Amino acid sequence: MSDTETTAGGSSTVHDVAILGSGIAGSMLAAVLARNGVKVLLLDASSHPRFAIGESTIPYTLVCLRTIAERYDVPEIKTLATFTNATKVLGPKFGVKKHFGFLLHHEGQPQDPREVNQFGTPGLLHEASHLYRQDTDAYMYHVALKYGAVGRQNFRVADVDFDDAGVTLSTAEGDQYRARYVVDASGHRSPLAEKFNLREDPCRFSHHSRSIWNHMTRVRPTDELFDRAPEDTPPSPWYQGTVHHLFERGWFWVIGFDNHPKSRNPLCSVGLTLDPRTYPKSADMTPEEEFHHYAARFPDIARQFEGARPVRSWVSTDRLQYSSRQCAGDRWFLLSHAAGFIDPLYSRGLSNTAEAINSLAWRLLDAVKDGDFSRERFDYVDRMQQGLFDYNDSLVNASFISFSDYDLWTAVYRIWSWGANAGTYRLSEGLFKYFKDGRDQHFKDLEKAPYPGLYWPDHDGFKGLYDSLIEECLKYEAGKVTAREAADTVYAQLESANFVPKHFGFAERDLRFMIPNAKVMAKTARWLATEADPVVKRMMQGNAREAVKAKLKGRRIF
User: Fold this and answer.
1) Strand partners for 118
2) Which Pfam families match (predicted)?
3) For domain 12-53+133-200+322-389, which CATH number applies: 3.30.300.20, 3.50.50.60, 3.40.50.720, 3.10.180.10?
4) Radius of gyration over every alpha carbon of the chain, rounded to an integer in angstroms
């Protein structure tokens, strides 16, 4: 194909890849492709900077971002992988994230200190943060432009036409652009989903939730809500992590950007997610009134938001979940939220996006070289992304079911936390191998897994444990077992499984705070040496060795 082609308005250049949407997903992919010589067109109906949520990072996200940065030689992506780097490059606007914190509430009652959980993000290995998205997204957009992507803001696509040579993107005013391939990263209102009628109706996901959110000032730090004994006080302050206030069939989030002394950002991201079948949307209340209406049901949550002030208009949604019957076609791909969405409970949005970009990018680079943009080339990315949606759906659905009983919830929590960690160890192994010899095959080998989309996608034992958890929660919801019976079944499996670490907290039923000390780590090390599944032993010991090496050099791994 020639590099130029006559069009009505717009540009005569034929781009290799057009990307719809310049949020963090589209801009990151654009930066990767442009850095590696691809002619990229990055279109967006809006402009930067702009408000966005999806601010909480998880260790898997950080390793995936570092992987993309190293694999595709875009060092700027590493800026988003640590709190220190983000603050240094973009300014002190980001919150620290030292843990995932969960507090279960019951209507009209003070929060019970025995019904809390905290899982620490290990500071030596991963330095998580709360991303201030209007800055990170604009930053990635400008990184993409620096590497040569052509950006067009305030460009609303009215029509997308495909032919044997490529795709034409047009505005209502008649401006047109040509490309050989198009990635839709525009989100829920995806032009390609609409054109090809890709949305499943009804949505296939089991989980149901709607949401209300905003940024606020003067949000009271979570720790000031309680005066508790030392044994009921978590190792890390609640407000220095992502706070989840759980209640039956719903939860509030509190994500502070102002949660450390050096912050110059007075904002806190707050939101409420509800099952609309239990809590129908009110036609008589504004979103702000509805938010405070539900907060008022729980005394400690209400106190956290007393005197807090919103800084923008509230957002209120209908059901959040939507799904697509396919993510890939000849010359097109639906990326991340253009394809589907579940719920922000486990901060999977950016993580899933980064994982999809990592697998999509190398295939697109090959396709640009040989001209084969067929659907089959991208079949794995489609299956993997659909798997990310489906497994997250079953996990969040089980979580909402379990919120009515703390004991059952802790079983869900432990399988989530270990699965997320095992997946992180697995990805880290691939990156450590790459550091040693620079072979991209290490990353491709990670795609050879029987359960794409599962946190730990190549371990049959974990897959069985996960399936059992989902089954027990569904049986409890159906009234076939009690919450105690369901929890007993899951805990029996956790305690007997040699692929679930012992002493650390992943299998210990009564342990509320999983931020282990030296004594616990020593016990876990002995368990690894004598009883652990060989795969778990290899992964955990390997990551520990890399952590020690990094500490001796005065740095973190990621």
Assistant:
1) 101, 513
2) Trp_halogenase (PF04820)
3) 3.50.50.60
4) 23
